[in-house]
Fold this protein.
Amino acid sequence: MQRNKFVTALQKGFTLIELLVVIGILGILMAVVIVAVNPSRQFAQARDTQRKADLSAVTSAVVQYSVDNNGNLPVDALDQPIITTTPADVSVLETYLAPDYIAAIPEDPTPGATPYTIMLDANNRLVASAASEQNPGEWISITR
């Protein structure tokens, strides 16, 4: 009787083949999940969402500046308009908007990317734009 308990105690556990099969199945499942989630696409989508929020904040700050200055947009030292029908880098507005209307002029979340631009369209509406990372060749625009 004592010998049977000893033999059954040695036979408890998994065999090497059983462990390898389970590890293989787990590896396949993990690969399928990683392909389905696609982290690079998720990060690009998050950065595009940040761009939309940044553009909205800049246009809101310009509109608030305009409201506080009798409907006038920022002008430089020579009374030349800064925002015209030609796209301009948003950073030129820093001295007019920060810190009163916006804490700081936002920058693109991807280092070295095309900077945010701002301009007036044909209807004199304010348009802020940024290059999309999720859809290359397309632009993210906010119009006010």
